[in-house]
Structure formats: structure tokens, C-alpha cells
Amino acid sequence: xxVDGHEVRLVQRGIDRPPxxxxxxxxxxxxxxxxxxxxxxxxxxxxxxxxxGFLDGAPTVLDYGCGRGDDVxxxxxxxxxxxxxxxHFAPDAPREPSEVVNLGFVLNVIDDLEERNATLRAAFGLAxxxxxxxxxxxxxxSGSDHADGLLTTRGTFQKYFGQTELRAYxxxxxxxxxxxxxxxxxxxxxxxxxxQSFLARRQRRATLAANDRFEMPLPPASARAGRSSAYARxxxxxxxxxxxxxxxxxxxxxxxxxxxxELSAGLG
Length: 268
Prior knowledge:
Structural class: alpha/beta
Number of domains: 2
Oligomer: single chain
Distance between the termini: 43 Å
Shape: globular
Order of helices and strands: EEEEHEHEEHEEEEHEEHHHH
Radius of gyration: 21 Å
């Protein structure tokens, strides 16, 4: 799939082709293409890239493992130059060096470790500025053990990463330390200069947010007492939320905090 202005071109192969050898483990066929979902808006990693300004100024964007191409179409609607490649849905699309490369929820569906490593290296090799890597972190549904993850009843594979595990894995394979942006989401920068520029931007946001927080007028003493009681009841949850905010340099979105539902239920 490729986009030039608002033109989208998709080259697609039949979905009934046999799985490749790399998708086989023993006698188990893993149907990776069945994990591709349709979206009505930008995916979480693309939203993160947009929030941090990496989609400003019409950069070149490569969605590496674009699935059905919803992100590429959304970027095209915004006037960006975007290309989407996928081994199943758009295998003949070009894979060219781009300023921004997104590897969103791809690594977690590859059951072969060597191929997973090669995919990560290939995506980073095409990133001129930044590579966004997103994986699944919260186990959803059930399945049987397969390789280092689970084989679902739909014949798909899922590898669930811990946050520390993801950072260590990316650093080991690429030889560069990633920057955590949210749960299951890291940025890897081509150069130290690009990384430091991002970290400085994030620190400025955190400082502005802190200044706004402390400039707010204090509520009456009775209200503060009630808040102290609420904090005591939910201290672990609130501390986790604050840690996520410090790590991101801003308050996390609902999909960036793994205990968002618990927070909403406990505090409204």
C-alpha cells in the first residue's frame, strides 16, 4: 500500500495462500494476517507519534506491517506522504527509508524469534529519524502455549511483553536504548541528537504541567481532608498513575495506563 497525497494504492494477494515456512512451528500453522483489525481512527502508536509532533511538517512515513491499511488512509486524509507495507495485505508495496517508521503490533504476532528479530532490525534500518514499536502487554482471551507465547483458537499467535522485557529486548536487538512512551510502546531514535531533542521536549511538557498544578488555588481544608482520605484508600493506584505521568511527561491517556478502568471506578 502506498499513498501520494490522497491517492491510496493497495496490492493484495489472495487470503487463502498457504502459510510460509517461517509461520510454521512443528505442525502448527500460524495465521498472522487474521490478527489485522479494521480501525475507525489512528492506532495508539500513530496517535503517540502525532502527539509528540513527529507527524508535523509532512514527514515521510512508513507503516511497516500496515495490516488493512487504516492508518495509511487516515494519514493520507491529513495530507501526509505515507506508505504501508504488509507481508500479507500489501506485499508488493515499496519499503523505502522514511523519516518516521511505525512497527505497530507486529512483533507480538511473530512466533519465530529469529524472524521477530529480523523484522525489528529491518524496520529500524528504514527509520531516518524515529521508529515506533508497539506490542501487546495485557493478556486478552485464552490459548495454548506455543513458542514463547500463546496460540489462540483462531489460529493466531500472541506474545505478551512486560514493559521491562520490551525495553530490554529492543535494546539487545538494535543496540540502542529505547525511550518508553506508554505501556507497550517505545520510540527508538536513529541518533543521539534526535533522542535528546525528544527528551528535552518531554521535560518541558512535564515542567509546564507541574507549574500549572502548583499554581492552582488550594481548596478549603475540609475538601483537602476528604482528598487525603481518598488518597489513603487508593495510594497504590494513584502512585502508579503518577509514575506513568512522570514517565510520559504528561497525564496518560486511557489507553496508556493499564489500570485506567480501576482508576475510573475508584475515583470517577
